[in-house]
Amino acid sequence: LEVELISIGDEIITGSTIDTNTSYIARKLIEIGLQVTYKSSVGDDIKKMEEAFYHSLKRADIIITTGGLGPTDDDLTKRAIVRVFKRNLVFHEDILENLKKRFAARGIDMPAINQNQALLPQGAAFFPNRIGSAVGIVISEEGKIFISMPGVPGEMKIMTDEELIPYLEANVKREYLKVIMLRTTGIIESALAEKIKPLVKLSESLKLAYLPSYGGVDLRIISRGLSQEMADELAERLADQIRKTIGKYIFAEGDKTLEDAVGQLLIDRNETVAVAESCTAGMLAGKITEVPGSSSYFERGAVAYSNRSKTELLGVPEKIIEGFGAVSMETAEAMADGIRAKSGTDYGVAITGIAGPEGGTRDKPVGTVFIAVSSHKGITSRLFRLSNDRQANRNRAVYAALEMLRRVILEIK
Amino acid sequence: LEVELISIGDEIITGSTIDTNTSYIARKLIEIGLQVTYKSSVGDDIKKMEEAFYHSLKRADIIITTGGLGPTDDDLTKRAIVRVFKRNLVFHEDILENLKKRFAARGIDMPAINQNQALLPQGAAFFPNRIGSAVGIVISEEGKIFISMPGVPGEMKIMTDEELIPYLEANVKREYLKVIMLRTTGIIESALAEKIKPLVKLSESLKLAYLPSYGGVDLRIISRGLSQEMADELAERLADQIRKTIGKYIFAEGDKTLEDAVGQLLIDRNETVAVAESCTAGMLAGKITEVPGSSSYFERGAVAYSNRSKTELLGVPEKIIEGFGAVSMETAEAMADGIRAKSGTDYGVAITGIAGPEGGTRDKPVGTVFIAVSSHKGITSRLFRLSNDRQANRNRAVYAALEMLRRVILEIK
Predict the structure, then answer these.
(1) Strand-strand pairing, A136-141 and A144-149
(2) What ipTM does the predicted assembly reach?
């Protein structure tokens, strides 16, 4: 079965919005054994949309579009569907009633323009939209399934989870597929490849991909088999070999993130953490608390941007800042000890650095970052030399700090 | 001129990575009058890559690919290029020397696998890679330009800015195009459309798009003309009408973000800000400090996740937390006053809320967020009722807080 995802909108084609929708859908599809083969995007141009829909109906069996279902003039998906499938639009009273209720609940008068959203192509089924105004459209014809969902990420996600996936599970015969994701950190892609390559005999039915990101490199195994058991076995055999060879770099498997993994370690040990940040300025605290339930182990954070705040919030002695600089191993260690002492947590993590673009010196160029972890086991600190890119440096520093905390908790050298 | 962007990699097709590269490139291209018409993605599958390259050479004049140039086995872009353009690979001594130097500077032995990266298709030019190991590949043939760049976002960005854009400016005849972006906040898409629709006569040469995001709705005008002057005039005329009608919702124009706009207001007034966060836990501080130079107006942040830390860090009286709850207007106001008093800044901004998925009650369901801004002008506070989605709630609260701060600074009601 060939699956094509089409994202629609000038905002995507012109790059003013990043398309996160098709990634989300692809990830959910692979979990039910449907692998996306084609992905494409078109702008808000009805002719290009028609072209794209025709092309997709030729090469794919399941087509899923996102975007272009809103009430404003540039939302043309429905009109393109009507032309391609040669159907009329039919008014749905129940959809309009629901819309009116939604606006009333928010205390807003429904702009008349929203009435368009109660029109659907004749013979189409629809996916309800629990949090927004545009319903999903489902057309099943001549063995092809064509589905259009709204482009607002929150709406698309809920609709994918609650409507799309159950619909496809019920209506599509799928492949036997197994996906295993091994998430590594602390080792670069080419070094990983040199260690793993001798182990692996890849084929059409067994694929291994290296997926680098700020947090590390993910290894994704995808296998296919004549039965689910065969696919499972093929993937598991390779995963085991990799686990044996580079196991210490693997911090989690599957969807679990580094912040999830660290959170779980703290929960298991009934321990707590607080953080002190300078150049990352809250991003580490923000990342740790992306995990639901993190309030059970995350106590507080201090964003000590000014020197004065480093002294006031964290008790960093002024003479350390004067003697070694606000960006130094000594300051990082004093920040980590300070936040741990003030908050009474088991671990204190501190980051100080020069994110850029300004502030670099000969000795401490942009990208210089010191990270320290304080605990009853003592203090661990490290210098990182990152890049010239402000936001990349801040992101990398956050993940490096999480990884250092993980190692201190697990007592890995 | 038709432009196609192709992003390559299983990580994109399977959704484990979000493709930010093509958005970046599209945004840069539009600034030099090149509008992307087609965007597509293929996995690490050499046949599908060849298909995609052939198809793009048929329908587009300029093709830009990202990804698949790394040293590992799944990086197949170069092999697909060689097949499609029927060329051999040629070894470039200078590229290898550069690579060796790069690894030496980082104190790492170059894995032998990286030698592949010194091979280029015969007759191809290349874009140097200042921060990574894969160079860009440039083939110009029969009026078509085919360019491949690495997929690592940091490398792709620098190569786009320093190599791709200058190359295209020098080698391509472009359209006369004008883009104006008006960024609004505090009004929903359909309400905006109702106000703007009567003003606008759109056509093939004048387009208006509504681009909603967490921060608000962007209005993007794109015009075309027979000369640059005509394109400019067409776009400016519409922009002026829109500015007159809904000007108070426009916080910035162009690439400028809400955090940029607020930062500029503070710099202009020589004023400072500090923040106190509970449910957003550092994300507001992180957002404010995305702006280079923000240290001149951002003093500190307190991530007061536990009740104890709200009292210790911000001086919120225990009886307020006990009487009204940690998530209440009273607590938000006490947090904002507290951080302003402790830090001595002109403004104190506080956020407390229930991000979810747990912690909601009948009176204060998930999505309930209180935001307060304290200044010498007094205190302003507001209740927001957001959604069920933890991360969306946190993002929206950050932008809502920035928007409230903007209004307090400008004394807009």
Answers:
(1) antiparallel
(2) 0.79
